[in-house]
Design goal:
homotetramer; 211 residues; mainly alpha; Arc Repressor Mutant, subunit A; Tetracycline Repressor, domain 2; 2 domains; DNA-binding; Transcriptional regulator (chains A, B, C, D); Tet_transcr_reg_TetR-rel_C_sf (chains A, B, C, D); DNA-bd_HTH_TetR-type_CS (chains A, B, C, D); HTH_TetR (chains A, B, C, D); DNA-binding (chains A, B, C, D)
Chain lengths: 211, 211, 211, 211
DNA sequence: TATGAATGAGACTTCATTCAT
DNA sequence: AATGAATGAAGTCTCATTCAT
């Protein structure tokens, strides 16, 4: 799954004029490290080994460059969490999804996109809204669809599958994401992540397992 | 006369020096609306109807002013979520706490503090860490303590009470907090919040109710 | 001679309203340490343990305060280098004067006045001019008068006594003042000062001793 | 092509990048007129007919710009006082050097560098120390070396050649430099400078001429 | 297309000075 | 007389953006 992430990036890289690619790569790093305001176009140019002027050949302004990166992030996200074959059993699917999800969030610099977007959601509501829709909501919907299929088959007994999907995703973050994103703890260990996802799955099924 | 002086000082600090209050109120608004970087000291001065220079009479710099606001936020937080009497039964306590918690997060401008701090946690890790410790972790710990008491009494069967506390809090946010904080939805209705908290409580107890 | 300096200060202190004294003392220290621009009225107020407002009760503005200090400095200077009794023999007189002079310049913080005034002479020519007239030129004239007396008595053979006076004073600074004032060396030792003044005297008399 | 690039760079630095020259020239004027603190970057930008931002393209900060000017000053100084051929006779050499030296110090705006550096030596000791070393001390050493050569040849009888060098230089300033630098007198006339240097030379040789 | 020199608006901060008490 | 809270002008420096090459 982590490989999937890398592949996605690689694929995107191959198409695209190489300068544009360079810029996006440099910019992502700088934006995610420093935040939207903290990142300067100069720093980005340096990270991309491109002149400052070139930045403006490919992107109208700082904001457009930033959104282009979120776009990519959205694609990546979409590709990763995509294993919702209704045929697979719930426990396995949830655990696997949970793992992928929490890995995505807690990978080094992984909270960065969420954090960075959140930071400017107030000043640029469109950016926030779009990111939520394309990334977070989309994932919820996919999981919800999967759950609905299993509700239909009598496998699960869920009233509000959208809520349930969101609940599962929140459960996977328990004790992991917040400390990580607030820099109050280093990235969690594999074992810890597994334990949390297992606990989330157990809890979820305890509540929603159809009889 | 010396006492007079001291009294004056005391009064001034008691009524929070009025000017200081003005500044804090203006600054909170601007910071929460625009984020740390987006807020300018000039804007803050205007919002507080105070001269720019006065800002620096009361606070050493922009960062100190920001932290003073987080401090207040932390106090507020601490006062709200305070009803963990071990004698109360779990369902009631959890529901009540869940309500208070989600109200706090989703009140108009309520995600702002979390969002704003999250945004600068990368560049100012201390601020992030401190906020997490004083606000989020503290709440988790209180809930965890409550849970431990009920585990001891055989009321609940929980292995890792810290994890469980975190899980409950995450569950309460399901489908509510993220859309709200990303500006993808308005503040949720009372009914919706109640429904989500009820669902969270049901799920939690389904998993952890002692037999 | 050094005692004379201290006495002068003490005398000045006794007259003068004590607040004014406090201010002058605090301001002198701050001005001399930090220069005219480097010194802030706030710092001066703190050094004088007086409120900022009080500064303006006694002095119209920063500049007036500064000039008041130079005034004092001028008085002090005048009092110290005052042992030009025409009856004393040249060698002794010159050596004693040279010692006093170089001690004054190289005492800890002693170049400070000259340095500080020099610094603003371009922007505030009056201040520079006045300081030169009251302090430096006055001393030269006194020494010149002394020399003239000895020329009259045939003791010395000097064409231009003003130039000669200036020459002797410059000679006393040789290798001492510049390194000190540029912070390229610590204050010179007593021995070194004595040696330099002796050398200056010898040189001076070699050139100007009447036959 | 790479060579072309390098050539361009070389050319740019050779012609001192014209913009950089503009800045240095404007800055020198402003710094020397107003002192380090009195000079504002805005004023300098105006004097150089350059935008404020451009200043920071070429120099890291105000201090770096100032030091760049001192650097130039040092170079100039070094080039002027350069005729210490040990073969030349002492009287001629000293007179010529004295003339060059006093001209340098008393040229319009010539005391400015010394004055300005002196002014900030207390707050920025490194700047003072470096300037002293590169400009003043260097000159002293060259003169001292010259004197040593003549001591070796029996031409002069000097104990401490470093002191002697310093003494000669101080003598040349007598009655000229201080009034000039304190704005108490206009730049001295040619005749006056010649007279003072002649007197200095006579005095020096009277004291140190070997028998 | 790609550059990088140049800009000017605006950010944070300091400080001399004023004024009500 | 003495205070200290308050001010606003001005200073240093950064940065998104433009433009000639």
């Amino acid at each position: 799954m982590v490989e999937a992430v890398r592949d996605t990036v690689a694929i995107v890289s191959e198409e695209d004029s190489s300068k544009r690619r360079q810029i996006l790569d440099g910019a992502r790093k700088v934006f995610m490290d420093l935040g939207f305001d903290g990142a300067s176009m100069g720093e980005i140019a340096r990270a991309a080994t491109v002149s400052k002027g070139t930045l403006y050949v490919y992107f109208a302004d700082k904001c457009a460059l930033f959104e282009a990166i979120l776009e990519e992030e959205a694609l990546q996200h979409g590709q990763v969490v995509f294993n919702f074959d209704p045929a697979r059993d719930a426990e396995t699917t949830l655990k696997e999804f949970g793992q992928a999800y929490i890995h995505l969030l807690c990978r080094p610099g992984g909270g960065s996109a969420i954090r960075t977007v959140m930071a400017i959601a107030e000043r640029m509501p469109d950016v926030g809204r779009r990111y939520y829709g394309r990334v977070l909501d989309k994932t919820i919907n996919r999981l919800a669809d999967y759950l609905k299929a299993h509700v239909a088959s009598g496998d699960l007994a869920i009233d509000d599958c959208d809520l349930a999907a969101s609940q599962f995703m929140e459960l996977c973050k328990a004790s992991l994401f917040l400390p990580f994103v607030f820099q109050a703890a280093p990235a969690p260990s594999e074992e810890r992540m597994t334990a949390v996802v297992d606990s989330a799955t157990r809890m979820f099924l305890a509540a929603y397992r159809g009889k």
